[in-house]
Structures are given as C-alpha cells and as structure tokens.
Amino acid sequence: MTTAVLGAGLSGLSAGYYLLRRFGKPLTIYEASPRVGGWIRTEGHKDRGFLFEGGPRTIRPKGVAGANTLELIEELDLPIHPIPSSHVAAKNRMLYAKGQVCMLPNSPKGLIRTVPPFTKPLYRALLHDLFTGSTLAKNEDESIYSFTKRRFGKEIADYAISPMICGICAGDAHEISVRFLMETLFENEQKYGGVLKGAFYARFKDKVDEKKPGLFARGEPKLFKQATKEKWAMYGVEDGLEQLPRAMRKYLGEHDVNVQLSSKCSNLTFNGDGARISLRDAEVPVKHVISALPAHQLAAVVGAQHPSLAAQLLEIPYVDVVVVNIQYNSDQLLKHNGFGLLVPPVEKLPILGVIFDSCCFDMAGNTILTVMMGGRWFDQWFGNQPSQKKLRDIAHQHVRQILQIKEEPVFSRVHMLHKCIPQYTVGHKRRVENIRKYIKDYKLPLSVCGAAYDGVGINDVILSARRQVEELPSPSEP
Ligand SMILES: Cc1cc2nc3c(=O)[nH]c(=O)nc-3n(C[C@H](O)[C@H](O)[C@H](O)COP(=O)(O)OP(=O)(O)OC[C@H]3O[C@@H](n4cnc5c(N)ncnc54)[C@H](O)[C@@H]3O)c2cc1C
C-alpha cells in the first residue's frame, strides 16, 4: 500500500517531494484538474516578450520558510530573477488614498515627516505604543485592526495595516487575526505591555533562537546565503512562477512518483488499516493520506464519515478574487515606478490594488499591470456571477483614473478565482489546532497541509508540507 497526496497545488507537490526524500516510493499524488500548480498560473506571450501571472508572482527570501523554498529551488536548478532591496520595485510601494497616489515612506527620514495620506509623522504612532499600556485582559486573539488601532492609532490601522491585509489575503483587517501577521508583536504586548518594549526582548530571544538546530542539517542553502548577501527583497521565476510547479512535477516524474491528473478524490474514508480514496473509476486503498486540498474541499470528501471534522474545516472561510492582467504597447505610461499600489478599504473603491509587473520584471517595452479586485468585498461590489466584460471594464476604468493612463490597453485577461484565499480570521490558530487534534484523537491516517492552515504564501505552503512529512513516524517506529 502506498502513501497518497491529495492535490497537486504547490503544497501537494511539496508534500510529494518531501515524502520521496524521506521515505522513497511508492507514492501517488491525485489532482482533480488536468494540470499541476493550483492557483499558480502563468500565461506566456514569449513572442511579444511579456507574461501574465493569474495568481502569485513573487516570493520573499526571508526567514526559515524563505530559506526552505530556496533550498527547493536550488535542488530543482530553477532559474530565478532576484529583485534586490535597492530596486525600485522593492523600495517604492504606494497607496491610492484621499484622491491621490501616495508614496509610502521607505527610509527612517520618512518617519519624522508628515507624508500623505497620514496627517501626523509616523514616529507619533510609535510614541503612542510606547506610552499606551495594555488595556486588554490577557487575550488569546484579536483582530489585527483592533490591535493596530490600540497600539498605533486609527490612522495606521486604516491606511497602513488594512491595505496590507488586502494585499496579502484580500481580507478585512477587522476580521483577520492579529496572529496572521503580528503574532510575535501581539504576544510581546501581552507579556510586556507594549510592542516596542517587547521588541527589546525579541532581539535578545532571536539571538538565543539562532543557536537552536534548524531545518538545514547541512547548513543554510547556498541560494539563501546568496540572497542574504545580495540583499534580495523578493524574486520571481524565469518564464513565470508556473515553472516552479512544472519543475516539481518533472522532478517527481523522473523519480517515479505518480502524479495522476484529472483524478478528483470524491470521498475519503478511514479504517483500521489505512484509508480509501474514491476516484471516478476506482477505489484506492492507501496507508496514509496527506491532504493538500483547500479546507472546504477536504470537508466535502471526509464529511460522510466525519461530519464533525468537516464542520470544523468549513469554519475556515475563503474569499473570491478577480485578477485582471492588462498589457499596453508602451513602457512610458507610469508616472511612478514601484511594486504597485494598494487601495485602503476606507476609500470604498471596488479594487484592492494594482501590481506594476513591468516595474518588477523586464517585459520588453510593454507596460504590464495586474488589478486585484473583490476579496472580502466581492459580493458587495460585484454581486452574483458578474460578467467578464463588467469586471474588465471596472479594472480598466480604475487604472485609467488612478494612474491617469490615457492609452487604451491592447490586451487583457480576466481570471475569476473562486474561493482562492483562506481567511485567517480571529481564532484561526485554535481552529487549526482543533482540526489536527481531532485527527490525532481519532487516529486517522491523515495529515493536512497547504494554504488553509499554516500561512497563505508560497513559502508557507511549502514549509507546511515539509513539517507534516517530518511529523510522520519513521518506518522503524511502530
Ligand atoms: C491571486 C493570488 C495572488 C497570490 N500572490 C502571491 C504572491 O505573490 N506570493 C506568495 O507567496 N503567495 C501568493 N499567493 C498565495 C499562493 O498562491 C498560495 O498560497 C498557494 O498557491 C496555495 O497552494 P496550495 O497548494 O496550498 O493550494 P492550491 O493552489 O489551492 O492547490 C490545491 C489543489 O488541490 C486540487 N484539488 C481540489 N479538490 C480536489 C480533490 N477533491 N481531489 C484532488 N485534487 C483536488 C486543486 O485543483 C488544486 O490543484 C497568491 C494567491 C492568489 C490567489
């Protein structure tokens, strides 16, 4: 009997990769769609020198999770495009607020001046934290909006944190858990009564943590050392991010791992010996299952036998996002260069932000923009099943108005991504602990990894898969 992975998005492919590395074969990955990569989708226009990313585009080379991805990329020998922190796309991030494009401060000098849309210098927000005690009783969780407002004031919550949350998970900061982005800051506040006060402690603690053995038995990956030395802020993959899942599939295939496409799991049951996976035309007995499915999809397949597990999985909400890629024939259209701009939700506009792809990567004389829309506010703005034309028109109109681009786009592509980003709402950490506790209590031969549980970024889903594989008992253990 084999181990099986459900889902060949990046997390499922990573689970396959780490299972192979740790246990060898036999191993099968079942994927519902006819392709690998999940939300990662690149549309190449090589003849004209540009590409469109329908999902993610950049990866951050930071921390353990960043180093882990670079180790994988090194192993796959995948060519990448680093963006150093001195690059304009790394330095310039903008907001569209109060009727204008505002450049966010990118140096310590920016802290002492008043820069729009803020009405006070940002150092005042830090003083606010320093002189505000912890007013809450010790708390398990709270929204990132309420935490930021308490510690740094309403303006920072509205114009810094809320748009950042839109940019990362298309969510509403009033609902998203503070632990999603600021777990350490929050815990330090609870312990020491302030974020800055906690920072002093954290510096000391980091030094202690550095001495703990890490993920990398043979030392940090070479690419990670290079990224640190050359101060990469982020990177993309040559010919688009979809090359990463494709390279993983190729690697797995070359090592006799079976990646079975167009094989949707419709039911998953467990018995004393292992699990049974129901496919359209077969029932497959396996020893252990790693699910890298979105939580709502896993709920659908375990619900018949484990309704209470399914109910817990369904408590992780998802949002719909519209991605509109736009191409113009000239590269002289943008007044400001940078990574892109975000629109704070207090502005009440139907777009979440615009990414300036052609400022990040060379697009051969084209201007390429990506407009993100919807997210937590999808229904409010677009209702039920909006047409592609309506979505395209809204994206074009806002780009024209905000970026003052008079030219008409030559080509654009609308992607409607249904339930694409899980929302780590208040209580998420406890929810995930309870899901894993249920699996443990019932001794189910099941592990769960992917964007629903341990972080929504590329690095997180790869590391999530690695950790789940490492938690499996070795073959010699009972
Ligand atoms: C628009 C957008 C932009 C993003 N930008 C970035 C970015 O710039 N940087 C970054 O780090 N992250 C970004 N992310 C996040 C990142 O893309 C995701 O975290 C990651 O791709 C999720 O991978 P996954 O494998 O967990 O899930 P998925 O990609 O959802 O993969 C799940 C797979 O399971 C399959 N499946 C579903 N049901 C079944 C079934 N019953 N049987 C078998 N297979 C099934 C699906 O077809 C899919 O292939 C972005 C996400 C989106 C949506």
UniProtKB/TrEMBL annotation:
Cofactors named for this entry: FAD
Q: In which pathway does it act?
A: Porphyrin-containing compound metabolism; protoporphyrin-IX biosynthesis; protoporphyrin-IX from protoporphyrinogen-IX: step 1/1
Reactions this protein catalyses: protoporphyrinogen IX + 3 O2 = protoporphyrin IX + 3 H2O2
Q: What class of enzyme is it?
A: oxidoreductase
The protein's predominant localisation is mitochondrion
Q: Which UniProt keywords apply?
A: FAD, Flavoprotein, Heme biosynthesis, Oxidoreductase, Porphyrin biosynthesis
**Record-listed E.C. numbers:** 1.3.3.4
Which family does this protein fall into?
A: Belongs to the protoporphyrinogen/coproporphyrinogen oxidase family. Protoporphyrinogen oxidase subfamily.
What biological function has been recorded for the protein in this entry? Answer: Catalyzes the 6-electron oxidation of protoporphyrinogen-IX to form protoporphyrin-IX.
Q: What is this protein called?
A: Protoporphyrinogen oxidase
Q: From what organism does this protein derive?
A: Drosophila mojavensis (Fruit fly)
Highest classification ranks of the organism = Eukaryota, Metazoa, Ecdysozoa, Arthropoda, Hexapoda
